[in-house]
Amino acid sequence: MPKGHATPTPSSKSSPRGRAVRILVVVQRYGTEVVGGSESHARVVAERLARAHDVEVATTTALDHWTWGGHYATGATRLNGVTVHRFAVVGGRDGRYKEIEHRVLFEEHALEDEYRWLRAQGPHAPELLEFVHRQGAGFQAVLFYTYIYEPTALGLPLVPERSALISTAHDELPLRLAPYRALFQLPRAFGALTPEELALIRREFRNDHIPAEIIGIGLDAPPAPSGEAFRARRGVRRPIVLYVGQVTEAKAVDELLAMWSAYRAAKGEGTLVLAGNVLMDLPRREDVVALGRVSDAEKWAALAAADALILPSHLESLGIVLLEAWQVGTPVLVPAWNAVTAGQVARAGGGATYATRDAFAEALGTVLADGERLGASGRAWVERECAWDAFDARVTDLVQMAAFGA
Amino acid sequence: MRSSLLVVIQRYGDVAGGAEAHARMLVGRLRAHVDIEVATTTARDYWTWQNELTAGTTWVDGIRVHRFPVAKPRARMFRSYERRAFAGSHSLADELDFLDAQGPVAPDLAEFLRRHGREFDHVLFFTYIYWTTVVGLGIVPERALLVPTAHEEPAIALTMYRRVFHLPRAIAYNTHEERAMVERRFANTRVPNDVVGVGIDTAPGASAARFRAAHGLGGPLFLYLGRIVESKGCPEMFALWARWRAQTRTGATLVLAGHREMAIPARDDIRYLGELSEGDKWDAFAACSALLVPERLQSLSLVTLEAWSMGRPVLCPAQAPVLASMSRRASAGVPYRSFAEFAEACELLVERPELTDRLGQSGRDFVARTYTWPVVVEKYLDLLAEVRARNASDLS
User: Fold this and answer.
1) Which residues does chain A have within 8 Å of residue B167's beta carbon, measured at their own beta carbons?
2) Between B107, B187, B393, which is nearest A405 by CB?
3) Contact between chains at A161 and B166 (C-beta distance less than 8 A)
4) Residue A297 lies in a domain
5) Domain count within chain B
6) How far apart are the C-alpha atoms of A9 and A30, rounded to whole Å?
């Protein structure tokens, strides 16, 4: 792997929407092995932009977001047409992180504690910030990913005049901490994943003078999975009600199980299929089937086989699994109190919401009864909104709003 | 209901200093329209930031003032921090060290802003350069206004100051020149702003004769008012003066008044009067041919505006970007580029009083157009309303 942060020879790319510009993407983790919604989004954006522009990434050597342990080598490397600069994380996540977090979120504390929390959370990568300080002005636009981490919170203020913030914010306590008060006033433009995220940013920070673009996501066409084969292989009784993601209380799967029992008790039919790492105790009953972690192919097969997808989580910055369900024409069901997923469902017309846990059974019945129409509506919406050319146009608009001198 | 304003400034009260005097005058004028409190430090001296005043809440001119202790005075090795931060290849860490070393580091003031800043409709920060503004602005950006008092100097090129010029909801510049410089550097035209400055109170009944009699001064007079110190360009002024006096027949005297922080050449044609009373100051303007302002880095020269309001022109180096440009716009000053130009200007100002008076009258008109209190107060009220409007909008 090459060492040092030499600037690569600028290529003479051009795009139909204007001259190639130098763009820097700052994100806490980056790479094909990295798991994480914001991180994947950052890589998608970097690689799409690299088709028309000179794109570089400033990130850390970390693979996981808990220890931030050094996995990659420091220095510059190339990945899919993008130059990636990796900087060391100093100290990893602080051992007292949880204790400090509890203090700043729930107890009497000082301003200083909030900055200590930011640093303890990590990734603390001072050389990354030095890079932004020294090299930032050499880029026409700098896109920062994920508001909560230090590279963004301390990096964006170094180049406000050419910055865009893709905050992936949701309504959570840390959003109210002092370090973010300045952050959300500084960018030239916001890139939001959903209208609900943007509304949150506006409501919390009163910054509607800063322009914004709802960039959403672009998606490849799904493989042609066979729902029949999945049903035959797994032998589960229809209707199949699917959950995809980590099987954990943090994603409200416990709530889903309780609602499922009530649905069944009220003579609801079918099987609840859980696809994803199981991180909690599950009831032993034949109408609940846990597949554990599944391959990508099996995930698509399950989505195609399902009669409905449930995403019960309370906080979601995009809910990409909803989009994937719609890609194969499967309708979805989400809680009305998750503004982001409920908003996506309303826009796509691809499912229903339940206003209370007690309303779950009835809502599920509605989705199952009208599944074909809802699924088709979701599919049409996704094909329009998540087409690559539509996504590229939105990202290009964001870069143009942020670009220095624009 | 009246709106509320918190003023945040590094020092406040009976302290020397342009920005500090500016803040206090402004508070005096705005208090009729807004409920004002001040958050500041216990320092009186801008160099040491020693805790000389008592921490806690006190009153200055009937305004509630919250004083917070300075945790760290200016670093003993400040100049070395400054050198490192101003070097071409410096790091971000060097900049943050410089900010701390410069002071006044007042964590309790920052804490006050975190806990109580949002209780005020607006928070007005004075001077871009100090810790109190750099840290404080980030805590209440959505209701912040900034009076940057910025000028071309090495510090303004530091990366850490970029956010300071993008964070506030409104900026009140002192001069058009300052605004042009800041917008060129920071590309922050998106921040609502105006050229505001301060108002100048003219003094009726000033008397040249009274001044000459009181101090035993005859012949043509040139005036310098302010701290007598190297950084204000005094050594250059003394050198130019000595060279000109060696060749002129005008018999002019250079009159100096202000805090003395360097040796003044012992010459018959230079008179140091110590610090002048307010009345004496206006008499001095009336008595002089022109005011000398030799400093090259200056954002807004209050004494220049005062001289103009008294109908007296100024002499300044052409390299002083703000003052030279203002002098040209006002047609009320003579920027000099060399000793020859300095000498020629001094001769003219003494020999042709009708020309001097014409320049002075232009200065008086210039001040009346922009730098009077009714104009300044109105502009501030507009900026405050702009900040409030954005925060009042119900977006939920």
Assistant:
1) 160, 182, 185-186
2) B187
3) yes
4) yes
5) 2
6) 22
Please check whether residues A338 and A350 belong to one and the same domain.
yes
Q: Residue by residue, what is the 3-state secondary structure of A312-340?
A: CCCCCCCCHHHHHHHHCCCCEEEECCCHH
Range(s) of the domain holding residue A101: 14-218+388-402
Q: Both B179 and B30 in a single domain?
A: yes
CB contact under 8 A, B163 and A208: no
Using a CB-CB distance cutoff of 8 angstroms, which residues of chain B are in contact with residue A136?
A: 159
Output the average pLDDT for chain A.
93
Task: Check: pTM over 0.80? Answer yes or no.
Answer: yes
Residues B79 and B213 in one domain: no
Q: Which of B118, B135, B166 would best serve as a mutation to test chain A binding (most A beta carbons within 10 A)? A: B166
Nearest-by-CA chain B residue for A110: B111
Using the Cα atoms of residue B347, residue B348, residue B352 and residue B355 in order, give the sign of their dihedral: negative
ipTM of the complex: 0.86
Q: Which residue of B has its CA nearest to A108?
A: B115
Same-domain pairing of B21 and B157: yes
Instruction: Clarify whether residues B242 and B269 are in a common domain.
Output: yes
In a domain, A360, yes or no: yes
| A129, A182, A199 member nearest B141 (Cβ) | A182
> C-alpha A256: how far from its chain's center?
22
Shared-domain flag, residues A104 and A170:
yes
- SS3 category, B4: strand
Question: Is the Cβ pair B162, A157 closer than 8 Å?
Answer: yes
- Looking at the fold, whether B163 and B254 belong to one and the same domain comes out as no
Contacts of A109 in chain B (CB under 8 A): none
B286 with B268, same domain: the answer is yes
Give chain B's contact residues with A (Cβ, < 8 Å).
Answer: 91-93, 95, 107, 110-111, 114, 137-142, 159-160, 162-163, 166-167, 186-188, 190, 390-391, 393, 395-396
Structural domain contains residue A86: yes
pLDDT of residue A348: 97
Helix (H, G, I), strand (E, B) or coil at B315: strand
The identity of residue B375, as a single letter, is V
Asked whether residue A14 carries a pLDDT value surpassing 90, the answer given is no
CATH number of the domain enclosing A189: 3.40.50.2000
What Å distances lie between residue A284 and A234, A243, A246, A289, CA to CA?
A: 17, 17, 18, 9
Closest-CA residue to A87 (of A143, A133, A23): A133
Q: Residues B361, B237: one domain?
A: yes
Question: Quick one: A155 and A246 in the same domain?
Answer: no
Are A200 and A115 in a shared domain?
Answer: yes
Low-confidence ranges of chain B (pLDDT < 70): 393-396
Structure tokens that stand for B266 in this block: 């012992």
pLDDT(A188) > 50: yes
Min Cα–Cα distance to chain A from B124, Å: 16
Q: What is the pLDDT of residue A1?
A: 36
- Cα dihedral A242, A243, A244, A248 in deg (nearest 10): -160
Q: Domain containing B89: what range?
A: 4-199+372-392
Interface touch B92/A203, C-beta < 8 Å: no
Number of domains within chain A? 2
- Give CA–CA dist A205/A184, Å, rounded: 7
Residues A198 and A337 in one domain: no
Does the pLDDT at position A406 exceed 70? no
Residues of A with CB under 8 A from a CB of B: 110-112, 126, 129-130, 133, 136, 157-161, 178-179, 181-182, 185-186, 188, 199, 202-203, 205-209, 404-405
